[in-house]
């Protein structure tokens, strides 16, 4: 029986706390000073032979430079000895990577681990600029360093013209006379009037020009030309940018567009021609289709399909529909309830029902025949193996299995071969080894909890709120208006978060400042997008 139980434990495999177990030394240890600082010690056994201990201490002190007391002592492997390189095609071009986005909890963990590596000196930050303008250090006359931008590589990559970008010495402004007046003015403001007289000639000529510019009205078209500018220019005037890759991309993209009566259309698949819209026109179409007279507050994919069936197109059609639906108040109010838990499994404080009013002296109740049925229910529970312990409660208490009533009426082999003297000895032996049985059941119980927690946490979608956030609260059946029937809203609010009680519990208040009674779990809350 013991072998069967241990096999069940191996199958459950509770390994959550395995990393906390560390072997401890058998003998008592003594400190051996290696370095000059107080903390630079190691431990050796005090039960060693004196001669062997003396040899061991001499060997450790002779190789004291092998011990690393900080991250700077770990020099690593010389690059001249071995170095790892990536095999990259010569024709491969550098590609600017997009920004990776992670969740809040993962981002905090990444920052903590990265800061540890930075503090240890194992990594350093390297910036690869997009325009090949490298950041370099220029040594000043005082011996200090100044960070400047070297435009040498950028000038080589750009066409030659009469206006090259400045070199490092000009960016550094190494001439001390260029900063002397500014330095004096910033230190002593009362000298500003006298220092202006020594300012370079020609600076006063800009004042009439600035007044002239201010007096004339600034009339310009501030509207963004939009995504159609390059396509329109290529189809009308055959204009292309100087970049070959960008020009090829515009030519390939323009093959799907056509101009009809001074309007740009796209050759679609669902419809022959789709009218191209600007940003303002697209916002009006989305608002009218979703919330207009014929609006139906559908999902993002259905809404995008309705826009295409109406004969309109713009590049960010699907994402704009998703953003608009996410901010729609009616869609938030009647949205589906969350099914994924926002928090992992954790312990909760259980309220004691008798801690305030004490236990009653007598139970006065009228629940029918439940006292008569209670013994049979308890007997069935005590004699049934539990899934969490793999044993019956009766055996965990008395060390042996109970005899069911059917064996009294219909005699079994155990009843026929019953020996009272031998039975008493076996019962005593079972009571002596019942502690081992209980320990195995406890391990089974802990393993089942770990497996259940692991299975539950795989469905968790973290969702936390900060103080001041606006949230929607899930309306239960008790808080819904009965007159609304099945058309009652699913969410109520919005409300404001006033306190974070941790473990997914929050206190809310209405927008006018009236507090909401009781605490609310994150499972019944969602963000308000407005």
TrEMBL record:
Gene3D superfamilies: 1.10.340.70, HIV Type 1 Reverse Transcriptase, subunit A, domain 1 (3.10.10.10), Ribonuclease H-like superfamily/Ribonuclease H (3.30.420.10)
Superkingdom of the source species: Eukaryota
Region (Disordered): 1-29
Listed InterPro entries: DNA/RNA_pol_sf, Integrase_H2C2, RNaseH_sf
Positions of the Integrase zinc-binding domain: 283-334
Pfam families given in the database record: Integrase_H2C2
Start-end of Basic and acidic residues biased regions: 8-25
GO molecular function, one term: nucleic acid binding
The protein's name in its UniProt record: Integrase zinc-binding domain-containing protein
Source organism phylogeny: Eukaryota, Viridiplantae, Streptophyta, Embryophyta, Tracheophyta
């Amino acid at each position: 029986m013991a072998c069967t139980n241990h096999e069940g434990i191996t199958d459950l495999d509770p390994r959550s706390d395995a990393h906390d177990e560390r072997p401890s030394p058998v003998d008592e240890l003594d400190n051996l000073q290696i370095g000059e600082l107080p903390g630079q010690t190691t431990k050796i056994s005090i039960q060693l032979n004196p001669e062997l201990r003396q040899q061991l201490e001499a060997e450790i002190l002779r190789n004291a430079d092998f011990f690393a007391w900080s991250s700077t002592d770990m020099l690593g492997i010389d690059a001249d000895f071995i170095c790892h390189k990536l095999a990259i095609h010569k024709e491969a071009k550098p590609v600017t990577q997009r920004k990776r986005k992670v969740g809040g909890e993962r981002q905090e963990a990444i920052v903590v681990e990265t800061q540890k590596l930075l503090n240890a000196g194992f990594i350093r930050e390297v910036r690869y600029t997009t325009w090949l303008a490298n950041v370099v250090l220029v040594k000043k006359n005082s011996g200090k360093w100044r960070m400047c931008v070297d435009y040498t590589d950028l000038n080589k990559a750009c066409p030659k013209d009469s206006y090259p970008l400045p070199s490092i010495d000009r960016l550094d402004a190494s001439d001390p006379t260029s900063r002397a007046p500014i330095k004096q003015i910033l230190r002593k403001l009362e000298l500003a009037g006298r220092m202006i007289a020594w300012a370079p000639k020609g600076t006063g000529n800009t004042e009439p020009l600035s007044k002239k510019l201010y007096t004339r009205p600034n009339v310009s078209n501030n509207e963004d030309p939009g995504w159609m500018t390059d396509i329109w220019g290529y189809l009308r005037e055959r204009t292309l940018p100087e970049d070959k890759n960008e020009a090829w991309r515009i030519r390939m993209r323009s093959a799907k567009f056509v101009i009809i009566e001074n309007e740009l259309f796209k050759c679609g698949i669902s419809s022959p021609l789709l009218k191209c819209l600007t940003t303002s026109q697209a916002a009006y179409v989305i608002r009218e289709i979703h919330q207009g007279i014929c609006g139906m507050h559908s999902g993002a994919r259905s809404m995008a399909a309705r826009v295409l069936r109406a004969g309109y197109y713009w590049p960010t059609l699907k994402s704009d529909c998703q953003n608009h639906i996410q901010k729609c108040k009616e869609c938030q109010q009647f949205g589906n309830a969350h099914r994924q838990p926002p928090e992992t499994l954790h312990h909760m404080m259980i309220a004691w029902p008798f801690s305030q009013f004490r236990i009653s002296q007598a139970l006065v109740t009228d629940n029918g025949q439940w006292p008569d049925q209670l013994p049979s229910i308890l007997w069935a529970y005590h004699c049934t193996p539990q899934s969490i312990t793999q044993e019956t409660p009766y055996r965990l208490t008395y060390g042996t299995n109970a005899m069911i009533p059917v064996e009294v009426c219909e005699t079994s082999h155990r009843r026929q071969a019953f020996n009272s003297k031998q039975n008493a000895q076996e019962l005593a032996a079972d009571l002596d080894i019942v502690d081992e049985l209980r320990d195995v059941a406890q391990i089974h119980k802990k393993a089942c909890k770990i497996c259940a927690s692991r299975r539950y946490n795989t469905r968790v979608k973290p969702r936390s709120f900060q103080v001041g956030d606006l949230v929607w609260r899930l309306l239960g059946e008790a808080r819904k208006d009965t007159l609304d029937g099945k058309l009652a809203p699913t969410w109520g609010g919005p409300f404001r978060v006033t306190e974070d009680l941790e473990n997914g519990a929050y206190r809310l208040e209405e927008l006018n400042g009236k507090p909401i009674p009781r605490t609310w779990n994150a499972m019944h809350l969602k963000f308000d997008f407005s």
